Amino acid sequence: xxxxxxxxxQLVHVLYGSTLxxxxxxxxxxxxxRTYVLSADGKSVFVAADTAPTxxxxxxxxxxxxxxxxxxPRRLATAAVQELQLAERLAxxxxxxxxxxxxxxxxxPSDGSADPxxxxxxxxxxxxFLTDLLQISPDGKRALYAADNQALYSVLVDGSQPxxxxxxxxxxxxxxxxx
Length: 179
Fold this sequence. Notes:
2% of the residues lie in helices and 50% in strands. The protein has one helix at residues 123-126, and strands at 2-7, 10-17, 27-31, 33-38, 44-50, 61-67, 74-77, 80-87, 92-99, 102-109, 117-118, 130-136, 142-147, 151-156, 164-165. Strand 8 (80-87) and strand 9 (92-99) form a beta hairpin. The relative contact order is 0.11.
């Protein structure tokens, strides 16, 4: 769970983990957490958390795998992570982020065994990229996302094929998602 705490006159969200049976008290897992998702087995928490600002640059949001009952976090991605979902069956974390190449959808193995792969194509960099519509299919093989203000796309979460557009243009004058 996320708890806002005051640290050096700043409000910082700290992610805590605990057992559900109460045998273990809360353990601080990671500071500056923005969003997180718990693995189905309850052993890992995948967290988008801010780094501390440095003299050479501002804070950025990175993706981490953290043991749910405490331990060392493992960095999975360094792009500016915004939203994340788990594709449990394929052991991948799917996330939206802004990288050096612009905004897009990415995935990375949940164990950190390989580098992230970009899932979205140029459609994600040319228009409004809607992260709040990111969904993983029930079988965990595909991610559904919206881009270009009006189009739905489906892509394999392992990045082995390019995204497929699922719909035509929206009604003239109607923003995507309004009905």
